[in-house]
């Protein structure tokens, strides 16, 4: 009898199922703006990072089509070999202009941008200081690099300062890396304090603007711009896959930084360049996002309205602004029940469970886009009221009297 070398997978699957943590892929089909179909059911979509409502915009589709006609679909090679087309160069120049940066490096995805950038900047003998709620790609980047990871409590720059002081002289290079807008909470990092700390200790500073680009700051330049420190963040990393409705990642910074990344970031050097069509679509999105500021204004406005209405219904909504509205429910099962109820009611809102968020902080992550209409927000509040009333009844049932 042979031994099944994969039996451990079943054990993990059973544990996961017992804890209510199993996740599955469910295919969707995009509908009208702000809507999707799942298993043939129309749903209002509160789960997309397409914050400006551009991913399905006919102008992006057309720009992609034109570029595909000229350059073909696949880019065929990594950027240093022959995957870098004029469409890539144009996009890199447009982003550099937008960011007010000397140069921009492009990566296949935002995730790859974080992995490759961190691995190119630090290694064994170096240290990276990261916020506890940093995105997975920042954490994995540190692992890939072989540098030491120091995690500080969320937003706690005093703690970071004391750890930096204690570590003084211990590491060769140091990098402070943070989400600009935290992906599961929607709040902004304390960037003015982080900039000052980085200056004081001579650390490199990387801000991941995945949820900031296009949404926050002057002209949509991101959270560093919103907090008035864009020109003091030397490594500004972003994605083309969220507000810009396409696919890809970028790093904006000095010419010497970008030249270093082009030569040393493994996810740039050894990975095929994004399709020229994706670059062209992102460039078109960048142009539209600047010409149509109402998209950014709309998503902030409905965010404010939704937060205040859900708080009035008694929900725990952390302090944040913009399109990410978390509703903290507690246990994974509660978040899943709420998401299932929303889905039954025609609304797609994801339940976010550990390990994506800390234990006991399972939540609904409502994500808003400029494509959502007022009716959709009203409907969401109405269904959430039903959930709150149901939870209220549950509490009474568990009351000993
Ligand atoms: C989504 C996300 C990324 C990864 O970007 P992709 O382009 O989707 O790979 C990186 N950082 C943060 C904070 C994100 O939320």
From TrEMBL:
InterPro entries: Aminotrans_II_pyridoxalP_BS, Aminotransferase_I/II_large, AON_synthase_class-II, AONS_Archaea/Proteobacteria, PyrdxlP-dep_Trfase, PyrdxlP-dep_Trfase_major, PyrdxlP-dep_Trfase_small. Keywords: Acyltransferase, Biotin biosynthesis, Pyridoxal phosphate, Transferase. Pathway: Cofactor biosynthesis; biotin biosynthesis. It comes from the Bacteria. It catalyses: 6-carboxyhexanoyl-[ACP] + L-alanine + H(+) = (8S)-8-amino-7-oxononanoate + holo-[ACP] + CO2. Residues 42-383 form the Aminotransferase class I/classII large domain. Its EC number is 2.3.1.47. The modification N6-(pyridoxal phosphate)lysine is found at residue 242. Belongs to the class-II pyridoxal-phosphate-dependent aminotransferase family. BioF subfamily. Homodimer. This is 8-amino-7-ketopelargonate synthase. It comes from Tautonia sociabilis. The gene is bioF.
């Amino acid at each position: 009898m042979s031994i099944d070398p994969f039996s451990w997978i079943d054990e993990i699957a059973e544990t996961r199922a017992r804890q209510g943590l199993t996740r599955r892929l469910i295919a969707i089909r995009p509908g009208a703006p702000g809507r999707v179909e799942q298993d043939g059911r129309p749903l209002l979509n509160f789960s997309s990072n397409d914050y400006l409502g551009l991913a399905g915009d006919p102008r992006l589709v057309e720009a992609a089509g034109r570029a595909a006609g000229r350059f073909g679909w696949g880019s065929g090679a990594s950027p240093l070999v022959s995957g870098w087309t004029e469409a890539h160069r144009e996009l890199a120049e447009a982003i550099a202009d937008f960011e007010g940066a000397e140069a921009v490096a492009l990566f296949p995805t935002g995730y790859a941008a974080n992995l490759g950038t961190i691995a190119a900047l630090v290694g064994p003998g170096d240290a990276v200081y990261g916020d506890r709620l940093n995105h997975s790609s920042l954490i994995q980047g540190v692992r890939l690099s072989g540098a030491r990871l120091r995690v500080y409590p969320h937003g706690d720059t005093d703690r970071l300062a004391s750890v930096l002081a204690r570590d003084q002289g211990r590491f060769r290079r140091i990098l402070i890396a943070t989400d600009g807008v935290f992906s599961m909470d929607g709040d902004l990092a304390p960037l003015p304090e982080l900039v000052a700390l980085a200056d004081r200790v001579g650390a490199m500073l990387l801000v991941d603007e995945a949820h900031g680009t296009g949404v926050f700051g002057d002209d949509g330049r991101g959270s560093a711009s919103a907090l008035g420190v864009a020109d003091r963040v030397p490594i500004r990393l972003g994605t083309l896959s969220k507000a810009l409705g396409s696919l890809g990642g970028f790093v904006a910074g000095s010419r010497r930084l970008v030249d270093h990344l082009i030569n040393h970031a493994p996810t740039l050097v050894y990975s095929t360049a994004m399709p020229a069509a994706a670059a062209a679509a992102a460039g078109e999105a960048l142009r539209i996002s600047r010409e149509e500021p109402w998209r950014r204004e709309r998503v902030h406005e409905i965010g404010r309205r939704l937060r205040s209405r859900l708080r009035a219904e008694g929900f725990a909504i952390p302090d944040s602004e913009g399109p990410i509205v978390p509703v903290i429910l507690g246990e994974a099962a509660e978040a899943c029940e709420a998401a299932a109820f929303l889905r039954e009611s025609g609304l797609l809102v994801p339940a976010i469970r550990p390990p994506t968020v800390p234990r006991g902080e399972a939540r609904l992550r409502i994500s808003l886009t400029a494509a959502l209409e007022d009716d959709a927000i009203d409907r969401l509040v109405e269904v959430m009221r039903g959930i709150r009333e149901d939870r209220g009844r549950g509490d009474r049932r568990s009351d000993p009297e």
